[in-house]
Design a protein that fits this description.
InterPro entries: Glyas_Bleomycin-R_OHBP_Dase, Glyas_Fos-R_dOase_dom, MMCE/EMCE_epimerase, VOC_core. Keywords: Metal-binding. This is VOC domain-containing protein. The chain is built from three helices and seven strands, in the order H-E-H-E-E-E-H-E-E-E. With about 130 residues, it is α+β, with helices and mostly antiparallel strands. The protein folds into two domains: about 55 residues, no CATH class; about 50 residues, 2,3-Dihydroxybiphenyl 1,2-Dioxygenase, domain 1 (Roll). The strands form two sheets. The protein has a four-stranded mixed beta sheet with strand order 4-7-6-5, covered by helices on one side. The protein has a three-stranded antiparallel beta sheet with strand order 1-2-3, covered by helices on one side. Strand 6 and strand 7 form a beta hairpin. The protein starts with a helix and ends with a strand.
Amino acid sequence: MSDLDRSIEFYRDVLGLELLREKKELSEHHEDLLGVEGASGEFAVMEGNGIKFEMKCLDAPANKNINAMRGPHDVGDDHFCWQVDDIDAKYEEFREKGVEFLGEPESVGTVQSRVAYFYDPDGNVMELVEPE
């Protein structure tokens, strides 16, 4: 995450997660845990819909790819999938909150669901899915 406050706001206000653990500075152990020499920054933990989600915002060392946005076709892509009961309603609700979608909800026969992809504030791909 490039801006932890912005991400907390997005995941709380748009996706409905709750802030479980307030922002805290990374400990000295994170350098070893992450395998990143000189790692420093902050993290927060959010919870909702049966998941716990930890977000990290490292301020050192500098991120060389700060302006790079991976697309769903790029190697290394990953995403979160949020199952909803009414994808059309969530699509409209999220759009009203300024969420950028890659396209409108569509039926995907291979997974017997309707899906729509969108970006979080850092350009991470997210998916809404409504089982048919």
